[in-house]
Amino acid sequence: MDAFICAIFTCRCVLAELKSLRESYSESLKAASSLITARCDHEKRKSAVACITEIIGAGNPEHFFVATQDADLRKKFQEEGLSLYLWHPLPANDFKQHKIAQFL
Q1: 2 located within any domain
Q2: Which residue among 18, 27, 60, 71 has the highest number of C-beta atoms inside a 10 angstrom radius?
Q3: What is the pLDDT of residues 68-98, one digit of tens each?
């Protein structure tokens, strides 16, 4: 069985957008700040969606994909044919059982 490494990234534009949303997204900013920051090549800040779209758009040499629970964002990316992973969180106990079941 082939193994692969998966790392979770964000980008500068996402961090900047979360900062601009202030207190209502402070926990999201804290979580996002702990992630690896992918380089976005544009000079001026873009919206988070525009930046992510550019990073995973044409070519996508880094093989990035988006994992999101945002239904509108999933629909937008699916319509554009961009790499998407449907993220469905499991309660802690279910997650542990799911992970154990994968290795049995």
Answers
A1: no
A2: 18
A3: 778 888 888 888 877 666 544 555 454 444 4
Please give the single-letter amino acid code of residue 40. Answer: C
- All residues at 6 or more sequence positions from 13 whose CB lies less than 8 Å from its CB, including other chains: 40, 45, 46, 47, 48, 50, 51, 52
Report yes or no: 29 and 23 within 8 Å, Cβ to Cβ: no
Q: Phi first, then psi: what are they for 20, rounded to 5°?
A: -70, -20
Contacts of residue 69, defined as CB under 8 A and 6 or more positions apart, other chains included, come to 87, 88, 89
- pLDDT of 96 reads 43
pLDDT in tens, 29-54: 999 999 999 888 888 899 998 998 88
Domain residues for the domain of 86 are 9-103
52 near 66, Cβ under 8 Å?
yes
CB 64, CB 57: distance < 8 Å? no
Query: Which CATH number is 29's domain given?
Result: 3.40.50.1010
Number of structural domains (the chain) is 1
Structure tokens given for 27: 């926990």
